[in-house]
Amino acid sequence: MQFIPFSPLIDIGFWSQLSKNKIEIYKLDDGERSLLVKTKINPYQEKTSQLYLDIYAFQDEITLNKSGPFEIYSRIQFQNYNTIETYQEFDHLNYVQLTFKKMIESFSKDEKPNLFQGRMSIFADLKKYLFYYKLVVPQFQIENIQNIIQKSLTDYLGDQMQLFQQQLSLIIQQQQKEISNTSFVILRKENLQYVQFDEYQKNKQDVIFLYFDSYNQSQLNGQFNNFIAYLITNNSIKDQLNNINIIVIKDALTINKNQFSLKNSIYLELNLSESKIVEQNGQYKAFNIEGYLQEKKIDLKSFMDEQSLAREAVDLNIKLMKWRLLPELDLEKVQTQKVLLIGAGTLGCQLARNLIGWGIRKITFVDYGKISYSNPVRQSLYDFEDSTKGGRPKAEVAAEKLKKIFPDIESEGYQLQIPMPGHFVTELQVQQTLESFYKLSELVSTHDAVFLLTDSRESRWLPTVLSNAYGKMCFSVALGFDSFLIIRHGISLKKYNPEIHGERLACYFCNDISSPGNSMKDRTLDQQCTVTRPGLSFLASAYSSELFVSLIHSPLLDGTPASDNTEQLQQTDLGILPHFLRGQLSDFEVRLFYGRAFKHCVACSQQILDALEKNPQQFLLEALNRPDVLQDISGITEELTQNKQEIHEIQDIDGDDECSVLQIIS
């Protein structure tokens, strides 16, 4: 039989709690204490048999799991030394021999044995965040173990498998409440019923030992040697040693389940009549003693400061997704995305929080506004103090607050007025307008994705044009009173390949045949403010962030095609990739739409792109002061003239300015 030793798997929370206990509780008291350790069988193949220590190792009682993996708890000795010299002076070899003698003495008695005994010696250099430790688990070496029969548990049980599954479910529910230090229970052979240890002492005939091994491969953990040592030194069962029946569980078990996959578990019949504990020079020979005595050093300087711990904690939830639920999740791709948020209001604040929840490390805000008294109750990055004394700049405060939430993020804010068609620029304003234009161009060019979150149609035009010019992923998110609209803009013409991408998708302006203009003229107070139901921004920002993270996992990124048939939509592990999302809160409904790019679009057409590149300043100033020129440049005027059509009216179907779907009434 082949055996494998324990490998310690020590969570960072263990070292953090140890540091806290040393400073606040232990102080100069370096006496012996105890730790709660646990073993469990992993559901996936491992090269090691792991012994787990986490933040709960310092508890006196077990934190019960009502569901989840079945774990076996044991208690071992623990000593945290004040100096490295006293730590190094402890004689671990002598400890192992003394432990072996105590174990053999206890095995000869008719009492439940303690098979799992161990000791962890630690010196913690808290100034340098260095931890030195030895974790010793005394395990005998046994010779002459004769394996009479070994077969899969499934073959052995046959039609008794269902009965055994039921018994196993009851056993693990009971065992997970105890600190057992044994790793085995006893069953009656005839009916597989669980036998209490006291009852077993009265009748030791016709039993099967049920042993929980912590390794799911062909070898057994070295702890099995201690189990064999107990059997061969217990005088009351010596006459049965020629035929010992053992069921070895080597598969992951889940609490409160009645069915288990037992493909790795085995049944053994052993002849232990000639088996002996190995001794050498008057001392018991220990399994893997060289490995257990090897000193280990953990350098947690980069983890133990608060900011580093925060970074690890933020990543944990995402890493857990990757382990089980989303194995194809590309954490590096998500975290390295540079995101530009145009608008730091209701949508911008909540979307930023969603993005840092996904682990994104670079977020930049652009907003010209200041925080007003009404903002903090709806815009989650601001508080009352930000709105006093005339209000602080939204973009700068949003970036500042993100850093307070997550210090590891790179976040900047720019109080920048976006040049908008229909907002006339005087000669005195030209220089400032051009500076804003070039700064916005720089920001778009240095980010991977742009979100348009402003509260007017015309403020989205220039960022849309620039995103197309620089080949950036672009999203528009807009709110009405009780509806929201999300659009992932079609791929930039600079990257578009019809053979690869199919039909190019529409941008936010592809439904328009008129230029955006000054929508703030002749508006009443309720029309000047963005009046929406309070919960709407949370829904829209949630859908937006999830669509973005899903899209960057698509091989074609923003060139991923769409369809008006939801069954034909492209998918990633996170779900489908629609083009338009239209949510209606009054109906609690989200509908999906699809639109083709308009060849004469006033924002993303080739004609607009050419005009921008030919003479950026002239193009911009003409578009701002004479918005109708965009219809001439894009070819809409000529198209309408050729078809003898006139635009009589542009009607908003549902009445929500920011969620409109426009149609032509001729």
Q: How would you summarize this macromolecular structure in one to three sentences?
A:
The protein is of the alpha/beta class and 666 residues long.
Structural account:
The chain is α/β, with parallel strands linked by helices and 666 residues long. Helix content is 33%, strand content 22%. It contains 23 helices and 33 strands. An eight-stranded mixed β-sheet has the order 24-23-22-25-26-27-30-31, sandwiched between helices. A hairpin with a 5-residue loop joins strand 11 and strand 12 (194-195). Helix 20 packs across helix 21. 36% of the residues are buried. Mean pLDDT is 87; it is low at 524-528 and 647-666.
Provide the residue-averaged pLDDT: 87
| Binned strand content | 15-25%
The number of strands is 33
- Poorly predicted runs are 524-528, 647-666
Put simply, the count of helices is: 23
Structural class: alpha/beta
Main pleated-sheet profile: 8 strands, mixed
Give the spatial strand order of the biggest sheet. 24-23-22-25-26-27-30-31
- What proportion of the residues is helical, as a percent range? 25-40%
Give the radius of gyration: 35 Å
Shape: elongated
Domain Ubiquitin-like modifier-activating enzyme Atg7 N-terminal: 1-304
Subcellular location: Cytoplasm; Preautophagosomal structure
Keywords: Autophagy, Cytoplasm, Protein transport, Transport, Ubl conjugation pathway
Subunit structure: Homodimer.
